[in-house]
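Hello again,

I reread your note about wanting to compare the complex against the isolated chains. To keep things tidy I'm splitting this into two emails, and this first one only covers the full assembly. Below are the input lines as submitted, including protein chains and any nucleic acid or small-molecule components. They are followed by the predicted structure of everything together. The single-chain runs will come separately.
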Amino acid sequence: MAAKAYKRTYTSLQAITKATVSLKAEGVANDELATVGGKLAQVVKTKGDTVTLQVFSGTEGVASNAEVSFLGEPPTMKVGPQLSGRFFNAYGKPIDGGPEIEGEARQVGGPSVNPYKRKQPSELIPTGIAGIDLNNTLVSGQKIPFFADPDQPYNKVMADVALRADVDKIILGGMGLSNDDYLFFRHEFESAGALDKIVSFVNTTEEPPVERLLIPDMALCAAEYFAVDCNEKVLVLLTDMTLYADALSIVSNRMDQIPSKDSMPGSLYSDLAKIYEKAVQLPDGGSITIIAVTTLNDGDITHAIPDNTGYITEGQLYLKADSDSGKVIVDPFRSLSRLKQLVQGKKTREDHSQVMNAGVRLYADAQNAKTKLENGFDLSDYDLRCLDYAKEYATRLLSIDVNITIEQMLDTAWEIFGKYFTAAETGIKQALVDKYWKKA
Amino acid sequence: MRTTGKVNGIVSNLVTVTFDGPVSENELCYIKLGDTLLLAEVIKVNGNKASVQVFESTRGLKNGDSVEFLGRMLEASLGPGLLSSIYDGLQNNLKTMTGVFLKRGEYTEALDHEKLWDFTPLASVGDRVIAADWLGEVKEGWLPHKIMVPFKFRGEYTVKSIAPAGAYNIDHTIAVLTDEAGEDVEVTMVQKWPVKLAVKAYKDKPRPQKIMETGVRVIDTFNPIAEGGTGFIPGPFGCGKTVLQHAIAKQGEADVIVMAACGERANEVVEIFTEFPELIDPHTGRHLMERTCIICNTSNMPVAAREASVYMAMTICEYYRAMGLRCLLLADSTSRWAQALREMSNRMEELPGQDAFPVDLSAIIATFYSRAGMVVLNNGRSGAITFIGTVSPSGGNLKEPVTESTKKAARCFYALEQNRADQKRYPSVNPIDSYSKYLEYPEIISYLDETVERGWVDKVMEAKNLVRRGKEMADQINILGDDGVPMSYHEAFWKSELIDFAFLQQDAFDAIDALCPIERQRYMLDLLLDICHHKFEFENFEECRHFFKEMINILRQMNYSEFKSEKFNDYQQQLNKMINS
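Full-complex prediction:
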């Protein structure tokens, strides 16, 4: 192997922090991999002849005379059709007891797609969940996170969405997954009989946090292999991106960088964008769609991690426990799919967007009525109808346990509108009312 | 002999270079990585060490790699063929690049050197000319594209010869000029200009005189932007910033649109170049793409080129302004540009300002906004650059450095509001917090008096006040309850809702409602004010609510109908009946 010829070894470290080591070395390339006392590390800074390395598994037990060997290449992974059905750790080593992958070695974290060569996303990804399909329709090539509190069933919803979506490959990037959640995903995938179209890269809470930084690059490198080389539709699941960002801040902190908002590195936006922007609709039919999870601290979306994420992704999905229906619903106010208009009314029925808007507007009126009720005011006839509507709308459409076609969702919505309101109250275009209105 | 150097340190895309000759601030250099040349820009010089920001990934770069300085700053190539192009921040043509992925160190020509343009001379032999004077003209799409004396030329020149009418490529010498010292210089159709410097080759920069129509009611009527004016749109994510900006780009009354997609989503750029070639410019009936130039440095492209992209876009606008054209520059988003500055400042270990942004952020933003404006050219004609930037305030909080600095520099403020967006009241421009300073300009007031209606601004102010009053009433009703307030409170509240639903809200995805010409805006506002002036009698607030809801529904149907069509007039009839019953 050509890389071996460059292999150089040093045994005198100058500085050791919890995540990095520094030493004097020559001919070292930026981003190059090395081993430090047997642990994998990567060059993150050179200054004169001093080189700083980030040690992925932490520097516990690294001695000042530890052996440092430079490997002469940036992180790579082997890709090939045998990836299907396999589980790997952050370094791309199998953790399922299977053999190592044989195939072409690719650099991870590679270049971006030329924006001019992209195609406009236009393929609907139906999930059966009306809170998503009706109000926040997903499109292939989209990137969208769940913004969820840690107590919400986001991993369950994500697994449902993944298994129902009509895609060729599902790639799971698990960062800081609890061992229980890891086993949950494994079980879900196995019992759905879908294991052969799934590739997983998993870093659990039992493993060092800095290792997580490799997971998205690994997962997306595999995704690019399937989408670009094999023209497949690939869905990438990334959970939990908050823990990924936390690992970024650990490294930047150890390198004495000036933190910006919420002690995150100043480059957080670009770091996250590099990952999410791998979502793409390619000219030859392949696509990469990313569904991620960003856990929130008590619903706070102004924190730097969800905030930067929101500016990068094409919308976001919120889960919410709804007291009216006693179910977990997809919050219709704060959730948004930015690409929905590319398929609504084009790949779905003509009345889709107007029905969606009317449904949400009336649900907002119900919230106002609820506030009045809580403040002890009398409710008008309209308010009362709104409240009844809200309960039915939440139960039959917003709840995450719904699994129906989009046509059925639209019919259900018209039925509920007709039950509680006049056509004028919905504010829908007359032409559509004439065609679809269902009298109670 | 060019200055050369060697790489001495690397942190991400900041590289330290030791050099052996003269080096200037903002000078470009090539770093040699094997056979690949990486373009970089000097941002700091200290002794014999220069800090350069590399416009590409520095993966694999080593200490000791050689560096060659180019002796020039980052320049834009200006000539016919800019329109309908898609460039990255360094003006590489993205269309002519090979491969699906961007290749590091692949630089492509900005302009087509083969294509022939039909040239018509405008100047004659013996004419005395200065920088930016028009020498000739070619047709670029339907626009008269002037070939000018290069902006870099200083002093007066005499036209020694000029090419006769004919088809030439951009490198053909179309004129020979003689300078004051008697030296001859050849002029082609393409000239270069360093993007970070403002083009000042004009006679005068007066105050804006008229408004630029966008077809968006909440802008044109409530907070109009002047031709040659500046405005900005701050808003949390999910408030419809991009939809609003695209609406302005599609409908803006301008000859040339330059869109700088700066650190934003790649799919948004894809949307522009997928849809624009299909769309028809409402003012000229030509394809939108023919008047559009896209500078695209999406969020996953190298950070350093993000900063360059906004300057590149502004320089291209200044070039077209010098031809006496009206340009509209849209930059989405200037926050990403500020963040790029922050990343570099951070890596250079400079002392940080607020939120870790560089301390001169405010000055940088103000200088940039000041490059927009209307100008009077040397030949007495005028041209304009209208600039609208978006700002993505972190956490949706408008008290952050980029928003605050921009507020000082821009004259129009379109505050997008989360609350309105949640209620799907689009565009989510807050009617009360937003403002346009141009409504205070006497020139603009008299322009509106003449072109729209006498006393127009007073009417606008009255409508704004009705909305403000309605908001106060809504607060009272929420506190005291529907029964706890007099009937007049309900009426005032619903009148403001009427203006909100029928005028401020607009459906950007409806073929008819998306574009509302100023004549139609005038008609609707007059109609709404008439209704608001009417004193209605209601038995109870239920009746009041019902009445106005009905009316809002009719008005919305009107908005969806062709102006003054049979259907439109029908709804008008229904409305009249309601008012008079």
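For quick reference: Chain B has a mean pLDDT of 93.

B.
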